[in-house]
């Protein structure tokens, strides 16, 4: 009897071990960084303490920069700003974070910014050099239709394009003409139309660049590249129109930086490029998922500024700045609001920070190898 009991026990243990061996790996959180000069996308997995484990690189093309993740987290989209202008589509492995190339499609122009609507059925693009935006359909398999549904001229140097939380209104800041274009969006027809009024005028020399929308869709926070200020706009949920509420500087009080000017390629036979060593050159902004804090990257000083957010009024209060990777072009916050990852165009590393959920403070967790000209950062979590 003892022999039979031991045998039965052994079979049970072996069966349990086999069963455990077939349990799929626990899904986690993954970081993606586009490396413009290398022409690829770095993949990192986030560990329990917020540190990063370096993974594989997915091939794209030179000057791969902006990225976007589908709302269902199945696909990653990356746009290359070198000719032929192309969007690369990858499927995301929810267990390993690895990227599998799915398709490529032509884009209307060189886009420094791409985004998706809330359904994931449409891809928006904004072109700095061609002063236009485009709209492409996205197929159920994640691939992008090669022919744009719309290509619309806007003001000079369109720098971003995003839709609001209702999926009805789209905004486009144009850095060179100090405007924010306002559109309505019909997701059934896949059509953008100018709202009335069509634009919001900013103060001259602001250089509106990137923006984010509050979780409750009541406010839009707009970053000015040339002054480093963040403007708060109230968003009318019925009309989709913006009204400026307040504006605040994202620079340390003792900064020596001065307002910058729009940048572009050198013109043959034109004047020599002016010295920009002391120019304000803000790049990116993001809200913490809890809506209590907003962060802004500035490239010349290589800093991340932290603001507190008044949820009732939308107004911001400057809390302080953290020196980070050299010339930070992009950063992202994980969906739980615990960690922030930033890239630097002039760095050979990326940095991960722990976010203090009480005061928004950033504590460096570690630095990790990056490719050349590290740009855009996306974080996807399956936890």
List keywords for this structure.
four-stranded antiparallel beta sheet, disordered N terminus, mainly beta, 5% helix, 383 residues
Overview of this protein structure:
It contains 1 helix and 28 strands. It has 383 residues and is mostly beta strands. A 4-stranded antiparallel sheet has the order 3-2-1-28, with no helix packed on it. Strand 14 and strand 15 form a beta hairpin. The longest helix is centred in the N-terminal third of the chain and has 20 residues. It is globular, with a radius of gyration of 22 Å.
Percent of residues in helices comes to under 10%
Contiguous runs where pLDDT drops below 50 for at least 5 residues:
1-25
Read across the widest sheet, the strand sequence of neighbours is: 3-2-1-28
> How is the biggest beta sheet arranged?
4 strands, antiparallel
**Which band does the percent of strand residues land in?**
over 45%
Determine Rg (CA atoms, Å).
22 Å
The run of helices and strands is: HEEEEEEEEEEEEEEEEEEEEEEEEEEEE
Indicate the structural class: mainly beta
Mean pLDDT: 93
SSE map:
Blueprint: H1 2-21, E1 29-35, E2 40-46, E3 52-59, E4 64-69, E5 75-80, E6 86-92, E7 99-106, E8 113-116, E9 122-127, E10 132-137, E11 150-153, E12 162-163, E13 169-174, E14 179-186, E15 191-201, E16 208-213, E17 219-224, E18 229-235, E19 242-249, E20 282-287, E21 293-298, E22 303-309, E23 316-323, E24 328-333, E25 339-344, E26 349-355, E27 362-369, E28 374-381
Antiparallel strand pairs: 1-2, 1-28, 2-3, 4-5, 5-6, 6-7, 8-9, 9-10, 10-11, 12-13, 13-14, 14-15, 16-17, 17-18, 18-19, 20-21, 21-22, 22-23, 24-25, 25-26, 26-27
């Amino acid at each position: 009897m003892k022999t039979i009991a031991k045998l039965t026990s052994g079979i049970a243990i072996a069966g349990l071990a086999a069963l455990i061996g077939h349990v799929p790996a626990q899904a986690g959180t993954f970081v993606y960084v586009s490396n413009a000069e290398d022409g690829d996308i770095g993949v990192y997995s986030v560990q329990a303490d917020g540190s990063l484990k370096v993974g594989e690189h997915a091939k794209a093309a030179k000057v791969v920069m902006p990225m976007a993740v589908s709302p269902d987290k199945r696909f990653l989209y990356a746009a290359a700003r070198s000719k032929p202008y192309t969007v690369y589509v990858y499927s995301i492995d929810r267990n390993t974070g690895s990227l599998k190339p799915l398709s490529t499609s032509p884009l209307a122009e060189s886009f420094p910014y791409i985004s998706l609507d809330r359904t994931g059925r449409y891809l928006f693009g904004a072109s700095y050099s061609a002063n236009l935006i485009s709209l492409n359909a996205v197929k159920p398999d994640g691939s992008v239709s090669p022919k744009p549904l719309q290509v619309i001229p806007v003001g000079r140097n369109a720098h971003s394009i995003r839709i609001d939380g209702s999926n009805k209104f789209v905004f486009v800041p144009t850095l060179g003409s100090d405007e924010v274009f306002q559109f309505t969006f019909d997701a059934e027809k896949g059509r953008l139309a100018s709202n009335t009024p069509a634009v919001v005028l900013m103060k001259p020399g602001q250089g509106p660049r990137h923006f984010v929308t509050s979780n409750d869709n009541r406010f839009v926070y707009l970053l000015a590249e040339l002054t480093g200020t963040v403007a708060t706009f109230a968003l009318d949920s019925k009309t989709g129109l913006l009204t400026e509420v307040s504006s605040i500087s994202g620079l340390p009080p003792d900064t020596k930086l001065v307002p910058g000017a729009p940048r572009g390629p050198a013109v043959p036979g034109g004047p020599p490029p002016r010295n920009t060593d002391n120019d304000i050159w803000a790049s990116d902004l993001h809200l913490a998922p809890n809506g209590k804090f907003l962060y802004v990257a500035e490239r010349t000083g290589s800093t991340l500024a932290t603001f507190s957010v008044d949820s009732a009024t939308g107004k911001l209060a400057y809390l302080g700045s953290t020196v980070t990777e050299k010339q930070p072009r992009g950063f992202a916050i994980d969906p739980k609001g615990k960690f922030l990852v930033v890239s630097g165009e002039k760095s050979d590393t990326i940095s991960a920070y722990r976010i203090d959920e009480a005061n928004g403070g950033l504590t460096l967790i570690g630095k990790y190898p990056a490719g050349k000209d590290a740009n855009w950062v996306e974080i996807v979590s399956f936890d």
